[in-house]
Protein backbone atom coordinates (compact mmCIF):
# COMPACT_ATOMS: atom_id res chain seq x y z
CA UNK A 1 0.00 0.00 0.00
CA UNK A 2 1.24 3.48 -0.90
CA UNK A 3 2.25 5.79 1.95
CA UNK A 4 0.50 9.17 1.81
CA UNK A 5 3.71 11.09 2.57
CA UNK A 6 5.66 9.91 -0.48
CA UNK A 7 5.48 11.53 -3.90
CA UNK A 8 3.74 9.48 -6.56
CA UNK A 9 5.50 10.22 -9.89
CA UNK A 10 2.75 8.71 -12.06
CA UNK A 11 0.23 11.23 -10.68
CA UNK A 12 2.32 14.08 -12.14
CA UNK A 13 1.96 12.73 -15.69
CA UNK A 14 -1.69 13.74 -16.08
CA UNK A 15 -4.61 15.58 -14.53
CA UNK A 16 -6.16 13.16 -12.04
CA UNK A 17 -9.76 12.08 -11.41
CA UNK A 18 -11.27 9.35 -9.24
CA UNK A 19 -11.45 6.13 -11.27
CA UNK A 20 -14.84 5.24 -9.76
CA UNK A 21 -16.69 8.12 -8.11
CA UNK A 22 -18.91 5.70 -6.21
CA UNK A 23 -15.98 3.77 -4.76
CA UNK A 24 -13.09 6.19 -4.25
CA UNK A 25 -9.78 5.25 -2.66
CA UNK A 26 -8.54 7.27 0.33
CA UNK A 27 -6.03 8.99 -1.99
CA UNK A 28 -8.86 10.02 -4.33
CA UNK A 29 -11.07 11.16 -1.43
CA UNK A 30 -8.26 13.39 -0.08
CA UNK A 31 -7.56 15.09 -3.39
CA UNK A 32 -10.73 15.44 -5.42
CA UNK A 33 -11.91 19.08 -5.43
CA UNK A 34 -15.60 19.63 -4.75
CA UNK A 35 -17.34 22.56 -6.43
CA UNK A 36 -20.09 24.34 -4.49
CA UNK A 37 -22.11 26.93 -6.41
CA UNK A 38 -25.56 27.41 -7.93
CA UNK A 39 -26.51 25.24 -10.91
CA UNK A 40 -28.11 28.25 -12.63
CA UNK A 41 -26.92 31.88 -12.56
CA UNK A 42 -27.78 35.17 -14.25
CA UNK A 43 -25.59 36.39 -17.10
CA UNK A 44 -22.73 38.64 -16.01
CA UNK A 45 -23.93 38.70 -12.38
CA UNK A 46 -21.16 37.75 -9.91
CA UNK A 47 -21.66 34.62 -7.80
CA UNK A 48 -19.52 32.62 -5.38
CA UNK A 49 -17.84 29.35 -6.24
CA UNK A 50 -16.29 27.47 -3.32
CA UNK A 51 -13.77 24.73 -3.98
CA UNK A 52 -13.14 22.28 -1.13
CA UNK A 53 -10.37 19.73 -1.45
CA UNK A 54 -11.36 16.35 -0.14
CA UNK A 55 -14.48 14.23 0.06
CA UNK A 56 -15.04 13.15 3.65
CA UNK A 57 -11.30 13.16 4.43
CA UNK A 58 -9.30 16.35 5.00
CA UNK A 59 -6.10 16.76 3.02
CA UNK A 60 -3.02 17.47 5.19
CA UNK A 61 -1.65 21.01 5.41
CA UNK A 62 1.92 20.28 6.53
CA UNK A 63 5.32 21.39 5.28
CA UNK A 64 5.96 17.96 3.77
CA UNK A 65 2.52 17.51 2.23
CA UNK A 66 0.11 20.27 1.28
CA UNK A 67 -2.11 21.76 -1.41
CA UNK A 68 -0.08 24.36 -3.32
CA UNK A 69 -2.93 26.09 -5.14
CA UNK A 70 -6.61 25.92 -6.08
CA UNK A 71 -8.04 27.35 -9.29
CA UNK A 72 -11.34 27.75 -11.06
CA UNK A 73 -11.74 28.06 -14.78
CA UNK A 74 -14.12 27.31 -17.61
CA UNK A 75 -13.96 25.03 -20.59
CA UNK A 76 -14.44 27.76 -23.24
CA UNK A 77 -10.95 28.63 -24.39
CA UNK A 78 -9.54 26.46 -21.58
CA UNK A 79 -9.59 29.67 -19.52
CA UNK A 80 -8.36 29.80 -15.93
CA UNK A 81 -10.31 32.60 -14.21
CA UNK A 82 -8.89 32.62 -10.67
CA UNK A 83 -6.14 30.92 -8.72
CA UNK A 84 -5.13 31.13 -5.06
CA UNK A 85 -1.79 30.00 -3.62
CA UNK A 86 -1.80 28.25 -0.25
CA UNK A 87 0.87 27.99 2.44
CA UNK A 88 1.29 24.79 4.41
CA UNK A 89 0.38 24.82 8.07
CA UNK A 90 -1.28 28.26 7.99
CA UNK A 91 -3.98 27.63 5.41
CA UNK A 92 -6.37 24.85 4.62
CA UNK A 93 -7.41 23.66 1.18
CA UNK A 94 -10.60 25.58 0.61
CA UNK A 95 -11.14 28.71 -1.48
CA UNK A 96 -14.11 30.84 -2.49
CA UNK A 97 -13.94 32.76 -5.76
CA UNK A 98 -16.36 35.38 -7.06
CA UNK A 99 -16.89 34.98 -10.77
CA UNK A 100 -19.34 36.01 -13.49
CA UNK A 101 -20.26 34.15 -16.66
CA UNK A 102 -21.64 35.48 -19.93
CA UNK A 103 -22.96 32.12 -21.16
CA UNK A 104 -23.57 28.57 -20.01
CA UNK A 105 -20.36 26.69 -19.48
CA UNK A 106 -18.59 23.97 -17.58
CA UNK A 107 -16.61 25.17 -14.58
CA UNK A 108 -13.30 23.43 -13.99
CA UNK A 109 -11.84 23.27 -10.47
CA UNK A 110 -8.25 22.18 -10.06
CA UNK A 111 -5.93 21.74 -7.13
CA UNK A 112 -2.26 20.88 -6.98
CA UNK A 113 -0.76 18.72 -4.22
CA UNK A 114 3.00 18.85 -3.80
CA UNK A 115 3.16 15.04 -3.57
CA UNK A 116 0.17 13.86 -5.60
CA UNK A 117 -0.14 16.16 -8.60
CA UNK A 118 -3.09 18.01 -10.10
CA UNK A 119 -6.69 16.87 -9.52
CA UNK A 120 -9.74 18.16 -11.36
CA UNK A 121 -13.50 18.26 -11.13
CA UNK A 122 -16.09 19.88 -13.41
CA UNK A 123 -19.59 21.28 -13.02
CA UNK A 124 -22.02 22.43 -15.69
CA UNK A 125 -23.48 25.90 -15.05
CA UNK A 126 -26.54 27.20 -16.85
CA UNK A 127 -26.64 30.94 -17.53
CA UNK A 128 -30.12 32.40 -18.03
FE1 LIG B 1 -1.65 15.04 -1.32
CATH architecture: Sandwich
Alpha-carbon Rg, integer: 15 Å
Task: Give the DSSP E fraction (strand runs of 2 or more residues).
Answer: 35-45%
Oligomer description = single chain
Structural class: mainly beta
Share of helical residues = under 10%
CATH secondary-structure class: Mainly Beta
Listing every helix as H and every strand as E from the N terminus to the C terminus, the arrangement reads HEEEEEEEE
Provide the CATH topology: Immunoglobulin-like
Give the CA-CA distance, first to last residue. 48 Å
Protein name: Rubredoxin superoxide reductase (1-Fe-SOR)
GO molecular function, one term: iron ion binding
Keywords: Electron transport, Iron, Metal-binding, Oxidoreductase, Transport
Family: Belongs to the desulfoferrodoxin family.
What does this structure look like?
- The chain has 128 residues and is mainly beta.
- It has one domain: SOR catalytic domain (Immunoglobulin-like), CATH 2.60.40.730.
- 5% of the residues lie in helices and 42% in strands.
- It has one helix and eight strands.
- The strands form two sheets. Strands 2-8-7-4-5 form a five-stranded mixed β-sheet, with no helix packed on it. A three-stranded antiparallel β-sheet has the order 1-3-6, with no helix packed on it.
- β4 and β5 form a beta hairpin.
- It is globular, with a radius of gyration of 15 Å.
- The model has no long low-confidence stretch (mean pLDDT 93).
- The site of fe (ii) ion has 6 residues, from loops.
Amino acid sequence: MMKMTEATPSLFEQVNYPKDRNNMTDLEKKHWPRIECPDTVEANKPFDVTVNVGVGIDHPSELAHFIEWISIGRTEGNLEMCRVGLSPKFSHPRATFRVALDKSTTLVARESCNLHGIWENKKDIKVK
